[in-house]
Amino acid sequence: MLDSAQDKRPSGWCLESTADGGRSLERIQIQNLPFRIGRLDELELPLSNQSVSKHHAEIHLANDALTLLDLGSTNGTFVNRRRIEGSIELQEGDILHFAEIEFRIGRSTNEAFSAEETDGGTLSLTRLELPQQFIGGTREMNELLDREMATVVFQPVVSLPKGEVLAYEVLGRGLHGDLPRNPTGLFRIAETIHREAELSRLFRKKSALQASKAEDELPLLFLNTHPNEIGEPELVKSLKEIREIVPKIGIALEIHEGALAEPKVIAELKEELNELEIRLALDDFGLGERFLQLAEVPPDYLKFDISLVKNLVDASSSKRRLLAMLMAAAREVGAQPIAEGIETEREAGVCTMMGFTLAQGYLYSKPVPLSELVELDADTIPRPATEVLPKPRRS
Description:
The chain is an alpha/beta fold.
């Protein structure tokens, strides 16, 4: 048993649990230490589930660290889905199970606790099966962000039809051995602990730091954003820091097409970008219903989604007409269209014939580290095969 004399009330520590079938999050403040968990009503966290022991576990604070102690429970206490024997130190993001009931350790300021949070009383929680609703890896994600365990890779944006490298899109990658490397998996985990904007800022910071180390001056760099960053002051602050790192390199900031739903916010962002000499690019264009909003805040670049380019070789005439209409809209507002997802020379040929002058995709290169960019010169970029352009099939 731990020495409870060392316990004191920790500031901001809480247990998080899913509610409403996983659609919402409930927070229970950890207070009145030792914080006792079990089936009895008089405990700090009573759990009305027969799989939980009467006195199941306790949380202590000793030497500035939260410690979880199993009290010899029948069905076990688990940390990150591993059953513990005795006590174990806890970290923010750890996933806890008391028998079949799942929680996650979180930390927040007192102001962040809502009226829905409880300071006692019996919780009615749904019976859950291991593994539960929380995504694993949240503890490791905190480590990745705090220790900046990330890098970036570069994918060329080329001219059509010459195939000259005119720009690079810079894409983030994780370096934590217990987390996925790809950004999709990383953002999925980061979103569960509300640190997705930090992950996005980290990738941009790494982009600037690596670009500053390039022996030769790099062309325009396309840097990505997360939708939750749009309209937040931290976004502009991070861009100012990037400009200090790479004051002379051209930058285009990519935002998702859905951001056009808030034209006032985008207009304010564009003013900030103009002051920083950063261009605006709209990503995944053609997926949503923001066609008419283009005129309100015209971007510098429109990156046509891969779904519009894929299978374009055998596309119907109606699909090609739709694409031609979207490209006309792009040019009408002064934006340069970019074809994404080009994988074959025939696709490049079709895009060239339809009027695209910029393209990106695996045909030209997969994303590569900075050290390999020297190999991506004009002599290694495939030329579009315009002479094999097929006739469109009838719709």
